Amino acid sequence: MKRENPRPRRSAHFKTRKRRGSYLGVTGKYPSPQNHHCLFFEGFRERDLMVLLAFDDTVERIEDHAIKIEYKERGRLRTYTPDLFVTFKAARHRLALLIEVKMADELRRTGRTYATRFRAARAYCRSHGMQFRVITERSLPRPMVRNLRFLLPYRREEPQPALDADFLTAASQGPKSLKWYMETLTAKGYGASEVVFAAWRLSARQQLRLDLHSLLSMDTTMEAAPWTVTI
Q1: Is residue 228 within 8 Å of 186, Cβ to Cβ?
Q2: How far is residue 136's CA from residue 102's CA, in Å, rounded to a whole number?
Q3: pLDDT in tens, 130-141
Q4: C-alpha span between 68 and 183 (Å, rounded)
Q5: Which of 99, 118, 88, 84 has the alpha carbon at shortest distance from 15?
Q6: Using CA atoms, how far apart are residues 134 and 180, in angstroms rounded to an integer?
Q7: What confidence tens digit (pLDDT) does each residue in 87-102 have?
Q8: How much helix, strand and coil, in percent to the nearest 5, is found in the chain?
Q9: Strand-pair partners of 77
């Protein structure tokens, strides 16, 4: 008798809802520092939220489309899968968060169509000790998101101990412009491009605090101080 191969187990990253590409919307994958793998997004606002969460030091883990909620609408059984499921570090004492991302204009025009599923999500979260939030672009300020997207790749760059130490020592004097740091540190023998690269790397690693609500430039001021972004 021929023996059948056992059915393979699902990957740990197999999602509850099938991922859907779209010719009309924007879909893709975004690297998650907390997860060490990519998250799938459907729309720019989902991607922008993933960027903010990458810089939230209270976050433990993020999963996309991970929880399926069953509910009834007009007598029919339906399912709803929110966009993101976020858990936080135990020391922060924050409830896990189930998130749906929508455009504010879409909610204003067609919000009634989501009412039943949102009620089901809130009931599910109450029964599981979680929170449910609907986030729109109003919670994702464009200048800050754009700057964080620029900084995120620098988090993966290797430290330069000598330059980093000199940069942070100079930055401990208080807020100074990037142009000032370049002039000060090139006088110590570092290359101008090295200094600028170090500025973005240290900022991305959240060791240099800077104004994220304005366009980053040589006039951007920064100082040695930790920072985070909390949704």
Answers
A1: no
A2: 5
A3: 999 999 998 898
A4: 55
A5: 84
A6: 42
A7: 999 988 899 999 999 9
A8: 40, 25, 40
A9: 72
